[in-house]
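Dear colleague,

Thank you for sharing your sequence with our group. We've completed the structure prediction you requested, and as agreed, I am returning the results in plain text so they can be pasted directly into your records. Please verify that the sequence below matches your submission; if there's any discrepancy, let me know and we will rerun it promptly.
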Amino acid sequence: RQVAEMISEAKNPVIIAGNGIIRHGAEAELVEFAETINAPVATTFMAKGVIPSSHPLSLGTVGLKAHDLVAFGIDEADLVICIGYDMVEYDPAYWNPLGKEKIVHIDGSAAEVDTRYIVEAGVIGDIKDSMHRIAARVERDPNAPMKKLRQKIVKELNRYEDDAAFPVKPQKIICDIRKALNPEDIVISDVGAHKMWMARMYQAERPNTCIISNGFAAMGIALPGAIAAKLVYPERNIVAVCGDGGFMMNNQEIETAVRLGLNITVLIFNDNKYGLIEWHQLRHYGRKSHIDVTNPDFVKFAESFGAKGYKVDKAEALEGI
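Please find the predicted structure tokens below.
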């Protein structure tokens, strides 16, 4: 009753949905809950797809350590409803730096708390049942909050879909990946600079269709992850999205994929360096150190295993491949 009253009184509530939604199989209930209380939903990296990106209440993904449009939406909220959320997914220090947000925690286990995550009220139990019982008690204005913010986010996500510049912009690459795949197809993101683009820009329509290693963030996950995904879902298209650094850590698994006859696609963002580490070095120290690498010819490398290799040499080429 307390939580329902807080939601009813809030003018701009926002939901942060975490990976617990997927673990509890509560995706449909989340969408129904958001629609009932008329609150927009931001997802963590590991919860992409729990609400379709095309849904009018979807704000996309939160988790970049930057003040982007989604973070702005949380700033403007007068109530943050965290559902299935774990602090390791996105430290509250980034989305609640002043500790001023009024927070509700809904999960199967009690919240961890710190100076940036002080819970006003917590509902502990089955997530599906909790959302159903709370929604039944809420009285909300039917006008969609933050509608204009969603429009700005959608415009930003699609800004470069027809960009013809070369080298190809990461935003354009991700738009092309999304166009090429069905809603149920799976992308596995490796760890590196490209992971930030995938996490923010890739518009997942279903849960577990964009897998991102977070927390320990293990480089090299994408290729073996794609092999596993294809073994589990042979009928789906599977794409491993890698940086050159992450790919080179487990590149030998191309042999496994070829030997098992698995039809997967490996897309490599190639900048001949550890780009994310370079960014952190420049940000903290103003200089870079030991981040440049020398890569093989990836087309010949693929062919040496009996796979097919392609090099994208113009913006419009990727979608054609």
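Summary note from our side: The chain has a mean pLDDT of 92.

Kind regards,
the structure core
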